[in-house]
Write a structure and sequence with these properties.
single chain, alpha+beta, Aminoglycoside 3'-phosphotransferase, Chain: A, domain 2, globular, 2 domains, 7-stranded antiparallel sheet, 12 helices
Length: 480
């Protein structure tokens, strides 16, 4: 294949022209597509790479696709990293191409192509096809370039060939393929310039010998010099890591424990220790900074802006806005009085669903991408570690309120145990900084209100209950 076939040009444009009408209908149905509810204005091929030619029984097209929307809601800008300012989102697609689709791949159908170079072919989601996902693993096993794609690996990690692939059914903002219960490949769906934190931070943690996070075995990127990335910038596309076979998802484990009426205190305490160990390793691996008056005021102002935007978008939040604002004002006041805190790289989106407990009882942290809606530059900024703590405290509350009846005492016990476990490793209980903790928990609850109002209205009472407590001028510590 010529180099021209991997750059945005005539060939890529022609391939997209074949797929354009099909993708306009297919994309909004995907869970990882962030533009739901906004009409698609235009599609642009940023790069198209044929990893397997169409002359094969099944071809494999790797497509980086820019999606521009005809209408972008202005009220969400403060919570989604300036959504109204964006010129479009870039997505990673892996498209299988066959003359006819066998019955077992029917659920993967994108559509039948009638025009352009792909006319007469059937397009489908390639991750459902074991033959094509096996090809991806082979590319990761053998480092090198394929057009704009660059495949790399850890030479010290053995990656066997022939591992049977299967697509992970539980999809959210990304997609994952498991290989033989040995490795898991996470593919980033929304692509932005720069190394994704979900690759960057685990690589640093591996150097530190932090066993709490699975170390990357292989990864791949795209080297682009387009409107997506400036010259010299690489876009992270996917990372292969050890698969923790038999591990329990923290969220599911908590819900099962709740359903049996059993305590979760020991697990919460162990999770606190695991979190503190990861924070210590990140602080050792990457620079830390001191947050003085100016930095603290910027953080508080950002929280206040997100609150104002959320209150505008969700009427149910408005009565509590003045009380919630006091949490951010108190933080700014402490900064003005000379209080300072240390900031470092953190997980950025920590909750029970980002934690796995192995059969031997060991807890691991995964998914260091941060909140995908935020700009990458923001996700890579040093933050107070209490941001992760606040996220986990909110997660215990979510689990408790998903139970019938609401298990509020269970949540209080878990929150307290988590902080105790964190202090056993870090030497400082997060509750010793009540103003900082309240501000971050309030900011997280505001984010949750907007998310639930948009995506899961039936869940809106959960963050609203926290909002009611936090707005009553009670610190986060009051509920522990």
């Amino acid at each position: 294949m010529s180099e021209a076939a991997t750059r945005p040009g005539a060939h890529a444009t022609a391939l997209l022209a074949s797929l354009d009408p099909l993708l306009r209908e297919w994309l909004p149905r995907q869970r990882w597509f962030s533009g739901k509810g906004r009409p698609i204005g235009s599609l642009e091929a940023v790069a198209a790479t044929e990893l397997l030619p169409r002359s094969s029984p099944s071809g494999l097209l790797h497509l980086l696709l820019r999606v521009r929307h005809a209408l972008v809601p202005v009220q969400d800008t403060a919570l989604e990293g300036g959504a109204a300012e964006r010129t479009g989102d870039c997505y990673q697609l892996l498209i299988g191409v066959r003359r006819s689709l066998p019955p077992h791949l029917a659920p993967a159908l994108i559509g039948h192509v009638t025009e352009g170079p792909l006319a007469g072919f059937t397009a489908y989601e390639a991750l459902h096809d074991p033959r094509l996902t096996a090809l991806l693993l082979e590319r990761l096993r053998m480092p090198g370039r394929h057009g704009v794609l660059r495949f790399e690996r850890d030479p010290a990690t053995e990656i066997p060939s022939g591992l049977a692939p299967r697509l992970l059914a539980a999809e959210q903002s990304n997609s994952s393929v498991i290989y033989g219960d040995t490795f898991i490949l996470k593919l980033f769906r929304r692509v932005v310039p720069g190394v994704n934190p979900d690759l960057e931070l685990p690589l640093h943690l591996a150097v530190q010998g932090c066993a709490r996070v699975p170390a990357p075995a292989a990864w791949f990127l795209a080297d682009l010099a387009t409107s997506v990335a400036s010259a010299g910038e690489a876009c992270g596309l996917g990372v292969l890591q050890p698969y923790l076979a038999g591990a329990d998802d923290g969220w599911e484990l908590a819900l099962r424990t709740l359903g049996k009426g059993e305590p979760f205190i020991d697990e919460a305490r162990a999770l606190g220790r695991a979190t503190a160990e990861v924070h210590a390793a990140l602080a050792a691996a990457l620079p830390t900074v001191s947050l003085g008056r100016a930095q603290v005021e910027l953080i508080a102002d950002g929280m206040a802006e997100r609150l104002a935007a959320a209150a505008q978008a969700v009427p149910a939040l408005r009565p509590f806005a003045p009380g919630l604002l006091t949490a951010f004002e108190a933080l700014a006041d402490l900064g003005g009085e000379g209080q300072s805190w240390t900031a470092q790289r953190v997980h950025g989106d920590l909750h029970l669903g980002q934690c796995l407990r192995s059969p031997d009882g060991t807890w691991s942290l995964i998914d260091f991408e941060g909140e995908p809606a935020r700009p990458l530059a923001e996700r890579r900024l040093p933050q107070p570690p209490v941001r992760d703590v606040a996220g986990m405290l909110r997660s215990f509350d979510y689990a408790a309120r998903s139970n019938d009846p609401w298990a509020l005492e269970w949540a209080e016990d878990c929150r307290a145990a988590y902080c105790v476990g964190y202090a056993e490793v870090s030497g400082r209980d997060p509750r010793m900084d009540p103003v900082l903790l309240r501000a971050h928990e309030t900011d997280k609850a505001v984010y949750e209100v907007l998310y639930e109002a948009r995506h899961r209205p039936d869940w809106l009472p959960v963050p609203l209950a926290a909002v009611r407590r936090l707005a009553a001028n009670g610190s986060a510590d009051d509920a522990l």
